[in-house]
């Protein structure tokens, strides 16, 4: 494995410069790391036709790949003019995730960057099966870009869940804030820290207590405990009081409103490897990912963003 840390940009199969190109170039420059760009091509029609006329189709496929290689090399050349060390390649493969794991195993990757897919008919962003696979299973941090109005992020938001009290959850929250703080420092961006306390969920979990005064007391105690844990987390990472946001309400709505109001460029949040999607850190995180109010940097337990 290469000992030099790299960023990996997964370019779309279409030969079009997307927001992820600009974000990758900006981060590579800020982090002073080389960038490798890879595009995965696979045309089902060519693959089927190749069963009947393999020589001709192989020539057609190689011609298509060469055109794509040249286009990608041109994009790399544009980035290199701004002081970024860039390499590129095109790979013919039907299932790219396995090939991405090859890059993970062969290169020392600090971060994988990819565009999130936009479904224009509904005017919202969805993540493709590959995106979800990267978020769920990829062992290195993944940055999914929805737009790059600011190629170098200006506002970074760390979302944490202090409801759970297990040691591994506290450590994971520290990793998330650490990654967000490093990204903000590298990009000279603002850093905000957010936790949303969903008291309605607490009531729903404690319906068995019956009496409203008792449930209210539990709600107040939990709210106080969470606020103290949130304040302690912020103190450990030197987040000033003005940048700490402990909000009560519906998490999904509160987070999306916060992103809109504060013009957030990147949400930094945690995902758990090799498990169901609904155990993304925070009970509403999967819904948040479906709505994708801005770009997302997903951190795995035990993996820290390199700086």
From TrEMBL:
UniProt cross-references to Pfam families, sorted A to Z: Usp
Protein name: Universal stress protein
UniProt record similarity statement: Belongs to the universal stress protein A family.
Lineage of source species: Bacteria, Pseudomonadati, Pseudomonadota, Gammaproteobacteria, Pseudomonadales
GO CC term (a single one): cytoplasm
Keyword DNA repair: no
Keywords linked to the UniProt accession: Cytoplasm
UspA domain residues: 13-145, 175-300
Coiled-coil stretches: none
Subcellular location, record wording: Cytoplasm
Keyword Cytoplasm (UniProt): yes
Function: Required for resistance to DNA-damaging agents.
